[in-house]
Amino acid sequence: MTCSCCSFSDQRSRTSCPGRRLGAQLSRSKASLAVPKPSAVHVTAAHRKAYQENGVVHIPGAFGEDWVHYMRDAFQQGMDKPGKYAEFIGKDTTWDTLFGARAKDIEMFQDQVFYQQAAERVPAWLPVFHSHAAHLIAQLMGSARISFFYLHAILKQGGTEQAIPWHQDLPYWKVDGKQIGSVWIALDDMPLAASVRYVQGSHAWGLFRPQHFVDHSSYEGREDLPLLPDVDAMLRQGQAKALAFEVKAGDTLCFDARIVHGSLGNPEARHEHRRVALRFGGDDAVYCNRGGETAIPTPEIDAVHGLRHGDTLNCKAFPQVWP
Ligand SMILES: O=C(O)CCC(=O)C(=O)O
């Protein structure tokens, strides 16, 4: 099992009455905040153009204050009941202690939440999976339907230098297609210096194996992928352009799973930075057995979803959430 997002150096149809099922699941859980109504978001032609051409678009205020409070509460519940592969990263954390160990003074936290695990572990996430985020990414991708893949939660404590190096998401996921993307939601305000940085247009580059994974995980059997070029050198030499965004809590960054991206630390000593990325697949998204080692889905999910190579991403583990 390898790190879900390289911090070291790195069917269920919505039409089958999600409201009733979600209500039943939530009532079995510990008290969560009331589920907010969808926030009004107007996706424009300019948003679609930016997503298609740059690979990323910033949509301010896509989630209202009520959603931000709701998701911060769910985030805390997720930290209180972490998954098997949650990473509580402190200064003393090494690759060997990445999973399972709880660092005393954590600088960074990462976890993944899959649909069926959420129902057992943090049901408060389920309404977020069924929220207007799915319609938002459907419009940007130009997809008639959207399946939920998983949620990635990240916290960086104030002052941490923990970075997430340049990488693409898709090579480490057992899914393939051009309509696979994330709705990343800020749960705290974050200045430009703390922004996720994206290499403009790099979703059209093809797939690569990041340099840093070589040092920290063998990613066995992934030699099929060429190594990612030295992105910092390309930026310095003007061969590539980085896009970064100052964000307020509730803003979204919607991005293609093939775009090269990464983030630095959290320079705001007194403020923690929490965010979640909802991962979605559109019309052309299929399950893809990449042959070598991957991070997502985790082996436990991979053992139960029942999809075969080339199957459309739509099953109980990765249900359709839009329309
Ligand atoms: O939020 C971050 O710092 C990085 C996010 C990221 O790498 C991702 O969502 O794939």
UniProtKB/TrEMBL annotation:
Keyword Oxidoreductase belongs to the record: yes
Superkingdom to which the source organism belongs: Eukaryota
InterPro entries listed in its UniProt record: Phytyl_CoA_dOase-like (IPR008775)
MF annotations from Gene Ontology: dioxygenase activity
Keywords recorded for this protein, A-Z: Dioxygenase, Oxidoreductase
Cofactor: Fe cation
The keyword Oxidoreductase is annotated on this UniProt entry: yes
Pfam families in alphabetical order: PhyH
Protein name per Swiss-Prot or TrEMBL: Phytanoyl-CoA dioxygenase
